[in-house]
Fold these 2 entries.
Entry 1:
Amino acid sequence: MSLVELVNLYAAPLIHPELWKPNDTYHSVAGIYLENLWSMGIRALIFDVDGTLMPYHSYVVPKEITKKLRQADELGFRMCAVTNTSSTERVNSLEAIFSMNVFMANPGKPHTNSFTPALDFLHPLEPFQIAVVGDRKWTDIYGGKLIGAYTILISPGEYTQDPIHIRAIKLVEGIIS
Ligand SMILES: [Mg+2]
């Protein structure tokens, strides 16, 4: 990717704020109204991991999120995750924890290619049948929109367990979006 393409990719939401405006926002994955998504024709969920399915740098999935994933499975949703984590070791343990495919984004989200393995895995579903669920506007929401998916922002508000640098990034995203 050339420098110009990179700048264009990352700067686009600054000029077009609608590019990172989510379709839905929830405090937690546990709150997602699955039946509503199903009735809208959504048949698959691509999750971000850190700050979405579990706190950053954690290996513990909150019980209510495990319950929600089970419900989604029972309803018939296909699921996988895409993470910007660069540790193969972490990805392998995440796959064991969630019993779902966890793809390492390469290049990182929001690049559309970061979702290619997930879209291949979810074939023959089309992007409009897929919801991308994540906690970052600039990576998850913007990336989800670029591939034509429905987008759900997870924004826990003041009870966030995010590390300080992620809080700072989200603060900036909030101000400029
Ligand atoms: Mg995240």
Entry 2:
Amino acid sequence: MAVILITTLMLALVAVQGERNWNFDNTDAVRGPSHWKDSYPGCGGKRQSPVSIKTDESEQQSELEEFVLTNYDNTVPSLTLTNNGDRVKVLVNGGKPKLSGGGLGFAYEMSQFHFHWSTNNKRGSEHKIDDDEYAGELHIGHLKQGSNAADAYADPQGIAILAVLLKAGGSEDHPAYEKIFQYLDKIENASNEYEMPSFVLRDLLPSNLHKYYRYNGSRAEPPCEEAAIWTIFHEPVTLSDNQFERLRQLKNKDKFLLHNNRPVAPLYDRKIYISWRKHSKEGVADNCNGLKVSKSFIITVVIMAFLKQLT
Ligand SMILES: *[C@@H]1O[C@H](CO)[C@@H](O)[C@H](O)[C@H]1NC(C)=O
Ligand SMILES: *[C@@H]1O[C@H](CO)[C@@H](O)[C@H](O)[C@H]1NC(C)=O
């Protein structure tokens, strides 16, 4: 009883202060990620994101063909860069790029994209691939064509999210990401907004769009609606360390935004699919592997026979 009362009082206090009753602080015993489900039961569901992906436990699915990207190569009419208090978010206004194909049953329209990062380059991505965490992750959110956000969030296939894993250590600033990051000083403080010049959003994606992971998941923030079809591209994009450093200069009040990735959720009975055929170098034996061995074996035999003739 006392606990409920105290929790209620704390939530009320939070509401009065105009702050959200959730955050990304794993040490916060009331508002941290493991307590989101106390206020938002959806966050404790069985189809939550992000997840830890194991390539060799994933299955190839032939329906996961190429994506059809429409308007991705045009500049959109306007982009609003925002600091929403824990992340950098860019709202896509008008003339929205469209996404279809890629094993998606519907067409989707881009609505926003945002970045996740953390205190240092060893962590920051939301998804983990074969136990690797990347320095950051870009999420490009798309709503089912013809749906508003509320309808899409209530639909098990209402949103399609493209995730790009971001690596640190690039020798120079990534030019497309710099089109956004050059304006980060304009959104230094929480709720700052800046109408930034538009650019070709396709340039944020990796060059290989054929290899990707696919699973059914959720929005990765409260109320964690289980409405998302996730695509995580296999090929990461590399940014410079300085670009990550500049993300860490952003603030909410007097605090730097240093950590905004949700911990991975259990997979439960979900499957993760991959769009490509696994090869031996990813640790999985298949026919291709056997073929390679026998080819090199044949070549060796031929060379040995040839050398024997010479002697
Ligand atoms: C952010 O807030 C600080 C402290 O109030 C202020 O000095 C600075 O100019 C603000 N930055 C922007 C981009 O508004
Ligand atoms: C996602 O859920 C739908 C509906 O249940 C199902 O048809 C589809 O195969 C699932 N996709 C994945 C990648 O699990």
